Structure formats: C-alpha cells, structure tokens
Recover the amino acids of this structure.
C-alpha cells in the first residue's frame, strides 16, 4: 500500500489555507447536557459550516491547491454532503464541478447540489455503476477527481475542525467524531494527537454500519454486506488512508444503536437548540451512553453536519422515540 | 409618569458589568435564508444564551447591582424565561430567588425553574392573583422585586444583545426584535440608536397579540382583552417604561399571523440549523413577509430564545404547516 498519508503539518497548512474561506464555527456547551452525562462536553458546530457540514473544509483545501487555469473542472461521485461541498468550493474558486449521483437519490439532495452550481450526471445505484459513469465522463473531458474521503487533501482539510476546537478548548481528556468513510476522523485524529499528544480519541459508529469498528478490532479493513442505518452519511466503508490513520491515531471505536441515534438528535435540539443530522448524533449518542470518557472528564465532540430532511426525521414528523 | 428611563450609557455600562457572566452569543447567517428574502440577514443567537433566552442578560445586570449581604433574596412572578433567568442569575451571585408561578403553568417550565434553584410559590392564574401572592410573600420576608420587563436595569441588560450585534456587524440598515412586555425592544432600541443613529428599528408582534402595535399607532398604551398566540413569550402587555422607549426609539411595528410564525420556526431550523421558540420566530416571519427593510438592504434580527416544548410544536409533532 503506497497511498500517501497526510501528517499533522498538513492539517496546520490546511488551516492557514482555508481559514479565510470557511466558517470558524462556534464551540458550544450546555449545562443541561453536562448534567445528563456527568461530565463537561463541548461541541464543535460544523452543522453550521458552509453547506451545512464539515465537508466544505476538505473540499476547499483541495480546490485551493488546484490552479483553475490548468484544472478548470473537479469531479466526484457523492449524493450527500461531499458533492454539495465540492460544488460550493469549486464555485467559490471559479471552477466547474461535476457530481455523479445515483438516480435514486432524494430530490432535496439533488436540488441542493444543483443550486450549488454543479453539473449533475446521473448513474445507476451502487459503487460499480458510479465508477463506470465516472470513467465515461472522464473519457470525454479532463477533470480532477476529488474522492469524498480517501484523499490526503480531504483528510487534512477535515482535520482543521479539530485543530480549531483544541485551539479554543485545549484541556480536553477525550475527543470524538463519527466514522463514515473516515475523512473526518482521520484528519481530526491527526490534529488531536499532534496538538495534545496525551488526548484520547474515540470514534463512534452506528452498530448497524460498524465496518470501521470491526476493521479496527481485526487490524484489517473489513466491509459489511449491507450497512444500514438512519445515519445516511455513515453507510460507506472506511477508506485505505483513513483506516491506516484510524489504526495509528485512534484509541478506540464504540458503537450505538439506531434508537440511541434518534434520541441523541432530539436531545441536541432540546439542550443545545441545534439541528444535527443523524450521522452527527452518533458521537453524541456515545456520550449519552457513557462511552466517551469517565465522569468528571472533559469531552469534545465534532457535530459533523445539520442537513436533515425534516419530513423524514422520526421525531420531527411526530413519532415518539422513547 | 415619573418612572426612570434608562439611557444608552446604561446599556454600555450593563455590557461591561455582565460581559464576564453571559455568553457572547454568535451572529449567524445563512445563504439559503438570504436567497429567500432577497436581502442579507444576520441573526444574533440569544436562543443559546444561558437559560436559553436573552432574559439572562437583564437578570444578571440586575443582580450584579445588588449586594447579596444586604439583599440576599430576589423575587418575581414569571412562569417563563424571566423566572428561569432570574433564578440562574441569583444562584450565580450566591443569592436566593423566589418565583411566583400560576398553578396552571406547564410542568417542564416549573421543573426548569426548580432546577435553576429557585423557590417556587404557586398562585392562581391571572395578574391580580400573581400580585396578591407577591404581596403576601413580601409581607413575610424582604426581597428585591425584579420585574420581568418594566425595570430600567432589565431594559439596559437586554439591550446588550443589540450592542454586541452592532459591534460585530455595524453596517445594518434595519434591525428587529419581537415585542412582548418590551424589555428586549426597549433596550435594543436604545443600543441601536445610540450606536448607529441612522439605523431603522422595526418591532415585530403577533397579530393575535398586537397591543404594542395598537399602542404605537394610537400614541398611548392599550391593552387587549384576550391576547392569544402560539408565541407564549409575547402574550403580556407592553410596560410603561417600555412603551415610552418604543415611542421615542422605534420607527415602526409590524405584525404577522400564527401560521407565518410556525413556518418561520421551521425555516430557521432548516436554514440556520437552530431551534427558536415561537416568540423569536415572529421577527423572522416579518422578514420572510418582506416587512423588514427593502431588497438589497442588510437586516439584523435578535433570535430571542430557544425554549420550545418539542411535544407542543405543530411541525415538530408532525402536523404539516404549509
């Protein structure tokens, strides 16, 4: 495996590069939440980042390293926050973006990526169909592929969220992010261990999509047959670079159940007045289950995004969750 | 009428006094919201203030001017955010708080005030019963009465929210707050006209509880028979000092309907990822209706609070609102 891995200095360089272009999101606390878990918890609010998710950091870090004159077009396949973030970042940089999206993606997601100015190319569902369509498009027009997570520039960019959190609140015992493809956790773990070597880093994953947890325990990447979870951002498998950094920089991976994720979303709304998407609620659910740190310790959580289809959220559409 | 009116300097003094004790809440923007209204709107997020509302500013400004050795106890009658804020501020200052609450108040509100450390004295519903119970309690024990809004210290404290907003974003054309008893609008109007003399200040009120609007137009305080609105924080009547400052410092008062208020709550959740209470959504609804400023102008809104009973919110419990 020769994939180049980013290092702590890449995260620091990314922070300097993207600083003027991203929202320095606030760090929030809630006395009510602290009382629930018997420890002090701070939340880095990437749900209010441009595009509604941390993904804008990595996308911006990537496009800012491209010369629009030589590389006028970027391309990716993502129906979620990365597609939207790359479209917004490309537009801000005066570049074109092409986003390959499965035909069965939700209308609001497609509409958001269109509004962000990207050209959309539809494909059949499933990773092989996505990659086939990608090759077809690239055969006709040159474009820089920007992978959603298995890319050193993306990882370094995502890590700037943790760099900002720990610069503002350095005295944390444990920090946590959710794990999907692993762009966020890989970058944030680099940042955390680089800034505060003694800090503990605990990843959080849905039990219904625990490929990273299984891979972490096994010491090798494992893919599940059918990951399924309400946390739609975490259904993918952890990438090669991401897994390497998970093994070297993360201390533990914990899992939570689906009803815990929904309950955590509601508690964040109630205690912090913040809307977070199910993927973000996964690390919060781990905290509520007592799986992050010990009583009296200080915990930091990255709230990764806030893009929720209000009509599809169980408690927002009125089902009772507990 | 000899009630002492606060002046701009009182707001500045309040900011210095309470600065170390309150949350300097973030100012947020949303490109999606701007696109809806064709103008740039910034939001001062008092929904994440301590206690979940701007009320903590006025309460803290008041208790910090009392000597706990001479005045160990404060008292008020409020089942809402002011009662909670005064309880929290008194506790932070090492003082006792007594809060008189109508028996029919909601359980969550009573529980919150109890958690904040106040002693609760129940009374029958209605202002006369509240004032009777207040007199009874005061006959037995001395305490400093802290009115929810018709008090110069409270007004000056609430104004610090606008002082912070305009210090951070001075180039606004129009600013707005909701109007209940008028503590927020009176203090914020003092702050706005003191800092940026040419700025326009537009108050926002539910059409179902438009006593301030009617009073503003008539030039004298008018009380409605039965104010009724989902914006529970705005059902009271504007106070004496508050009306005097409304007349002298506010340029216009606009009203919005109940369904507009609920729709605005949902839009704030969607665009800003923030939970605001119906009272806060009133000024947002005015913006959405094109009643704040003109296209291309820059608008500032104070999101006054985020204390929502999730089970009682129409769209949160699943009813469709539009």
């Amino acid at each position: 495996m020769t994939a180049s891995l980013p290092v702590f200095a890449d995260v620091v360089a990314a922070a300097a590069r993207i600083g003027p272009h991203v929202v320095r999101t606030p760090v929030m606390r809630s006395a009510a939440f602290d009382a629930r878990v018997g420890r002090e918890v701070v939340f880095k609010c990437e749900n209010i980042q441009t595009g509604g998710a941390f993904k804008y950091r990595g996308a911006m870090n990537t496009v800012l390293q491209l010369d629009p004159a030589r590389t006028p077009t970027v391309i990716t396949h993502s129906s979620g926050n990365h597609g939207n973030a790359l479209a917004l970042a490309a537009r801000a940089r005066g570049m074109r973006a092409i986003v390959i999206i499965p035909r069965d993606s939700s209308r609001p997601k497609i509409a958001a990526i269109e509004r962000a100015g990207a050209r959309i190319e539809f494909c059949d569902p499933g990773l092989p169909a996505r990659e086939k369509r990608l090759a077809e498009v690239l055969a006709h027009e040159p474009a820089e592929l920007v992978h959603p997570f298995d890319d050193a520039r993306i990882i370094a960019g995502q890590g700037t969220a943790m760099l900002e959190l720990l610069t503002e609140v350095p005295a944390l015992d444990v920090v946590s992010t959710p794990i999907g493809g692993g762009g966020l956790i890989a970058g944030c773990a680099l940042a955390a261990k680089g800034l505060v070597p003694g800090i503990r880093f605990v990843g959080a994953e849905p039990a219904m999509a625990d490929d990273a947890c299984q891979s972490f325990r096994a010491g090798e990447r494992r893919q599940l047959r059918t990951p399924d979870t309400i946390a739609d951002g975490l259904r993918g498998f952890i990438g090669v670079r991401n897994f390497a950094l998970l093994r070297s920089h993360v201390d533990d991976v914990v899992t939570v159940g689906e009803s815990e994720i929904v309950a955590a979303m509601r508690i964040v709304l109630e205690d912090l007045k913040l809307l977070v998407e199910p993927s973000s609620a996964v690390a919060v659910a781990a905290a509520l289950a007592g799986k992050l740190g010990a009583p009296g310790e200080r915990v930091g959580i990255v709230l990764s995004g806030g893009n929720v289809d209000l009509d599809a959220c169980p408690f927002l559409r009125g089902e009772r969750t507990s």
Summary: Chain B touches chain A through 22 residues (CB under 8 Å). The beta strands of chain B are 27-28, 40-45, 73-77, 96-102, 119-123, 144-145, 174-178, 200-206, 252-256, 298-303. Chain B has two domains: 8-53+151-312, 56-145.
